[in-house]
Amino acid sequence: MRMDSFYVFSDTRFLDLVAYQYGNEQCKPMHSFGPAIRNHYLFHYVLSGKGVLDVNLESDEKSISYPVCAGQGFLIEPGYVTTYYADRYDPWEYVWIEFDGLRAGEFTSEAGLSAASPIFTPSSAADADTLAKDMLYMVDHPDMTGPRFIGHLYLILDTLISTSSKRKKIQNGKLSRFYAQEAISFIEQYYPSPITVEDMAKRCNLDRSYFGKVFKDTIGQSPQEFLIHYRMTKASTLLTTTDLPISAICEQVGYPNQLHFSRAFKNVYGVPPRAYRQNHKQISLAFDNRGRKETL
Question: What is the pTM for the complete model shown?
Answer without folding.
Answer: 0.68
